[in-house]
Amino acid sequence: MASWTPERRRATWIKSGYSVYYAIFLVFIYGPMIAMFVLSFQGPRGGTSFPMRGFSLHWYNKLIEPSMVGDMQGALGRSLILAIIVMIITALFSTMLAMAFRKRFWGSGVLFYTIMAGLMVPGILLSLGLATLMKQMGIPTAWWSSGLGVHVVWTLPFGFLVMMAVFNRFDSLLEEAARDMGANEWTVFKEITLPLILPGMVAAGLFGFTLSYDEFPRTTLLSGEFNTLPLDINASMTQRIRPTLFALGTASTVFSIFLIALFVVIYMILYRRSR
Amino acid sequence: MQQVVRAEHTGLIGSQPSRSPLADVSETKIVNRGQGFPVGWLIAPATLWLFIFLVIPLAGIIVFSFWQSTRSGMVPDFTFKYYGEYFISEGFLDPSSGKFLTPSVFMRTLGSTIFFAGEVMLFCLILGYPVAYFLAMVVRSFQWKMALFLLCMVPFWTSYLIRAVAWLPMLGRRGLINNLLVSTGIIDKPISLFLYSEFAYTMALVQLYVVLCIGPMFFSLAKIDRSILEAARDLGATPFQIFREIILPLSLPGVAIGMIFIFVLLMGEFATAVVVYGGKIGTAGTVILSYYGTANYPFASVNALMLMISMMIGVVIILKIVNIRKEL
Questions:
Q1: What is the pTM of this model?
Q2: What is the ipTM of this complex?
Q3: Dist. CA B265–CA A207, nearest whole Å
Q4: Least C-beta-crowded within 10 Å: which of A25, B263, B295, B328?
Q5: Is A194 on the interface with B (CB under 8 A)?
Q6: What are the chain B neighbours of A173 within 8 Å (beta carbons)?
Q7: Superfamily for domain range B105-327
């Protein structure tokens, strides 16, 4: 190690210092969740904090039992259906918008800022505005109508930014070539554009799905008589907190991470194919 | 490629380099007007959707804030009554009362919401910037960079509410943090700092939101051209000078975007206050919800409008400090 100059030694020190800091940061970010995972396996007589009294799946069983307060399975089902619809609409709308933004058109600036406003307006304001409006007009709120509406407003800017980035790197010469050879617009889209942007659409869809699946403030006043899963979780927190909540949190998080992994795999496959 | 080289050579005699065919092509990247699907059809569905579910509800809030609340709801009117209630508390204009010119409870709640937002933003910046710097500048290999970046982005994709719930076992007299500190002998009895306190609330908010600002900061740091740094180093700049003169200014747009993102979400925050702090603190969001609950829609709208206005002022201030357009 004779070649170790002072600069190099210093660089190594800096690097290890940052690495240690990053590790501590990860503990801060993940620590509480890991504690929750462990506590969800609490024994039947254990409480919501350490020490662990035994190790069991008791609280997971409680979760599946129909006696659970509220209707957890129903809420999960509704959340999933809503997330899938939001995913499809987000992927579709953001692709269409990004395609439109390839040209300059009248009002494009206003439209751009309106899309971005979906990101900037606090969910509670949208919830309040729409809920009051619908009450005034006598339209009942429901998770599949008003809930769906504001979810898409929230997820659209994310999907839109993804698709804008995709089209920024898109080589429109390929489309030109197809057009020159006499393909009509639909053929060009189906044969050239779509296969190339499909990975981006999957990424936009991922934003749509997970953001909707986890969304709470925008649904608070708008879900109508049936709850989505985050609303149910919130409702169960106002009662006495039991390890069931941790089991639910763990199950939901594992499910989320599984979904992300699934999306990433689909993305990778499509990305490879589009090259 | 060859054409580009040739084009540069024609410039050697002093005239402007002639435009290479490639330059022309790159300018047609924006699709010609006549081609592609008609713009109108592409934007119509989303525009309509945004109009119904974003523009109209926001306009509704403004309109309803002037309406008159009744027992069963509200009726159209043009009254400033609820604005008065918002700003002027009892005894506000009476010098002899003890509450002369004391801000109303609503303004104080809004003030504390802004204060917490500012505090959390500051901590997120202090904690998050080194992480973004480490990922973008210190880690060399691209694979490691992306892997470590994704690792701290995973919480963004999981439920925010559940991450707040996860704080419950950590806090409290017999919570994990106090337990750990006692058992390692750092403190000899549980300290109140880790009970359901303001400190704990702030800590939880920082943990929940810090991942959101790392993304934008990481991207703007990663975009910095390494050759500029090399050049500065060759010219004898110290690492601190390089950071202050080059890296920091170039990363400011990312910092601003991250801060705006956190700020906006923090202003609308109400769930964490309930989960982690047991609802002991009122935020602008909880006030709005409670007046919605008592069917006083105009007053809820006034509160919402004030929240929106202070949020916009905050965003403008951030943008004044960092001129994103200029920096990009």
A1: 0.83
A2: 0.86
A3: 17
A4: B328
A5: no
A6: 25
A7: MetI-like (1.10.3720.10)
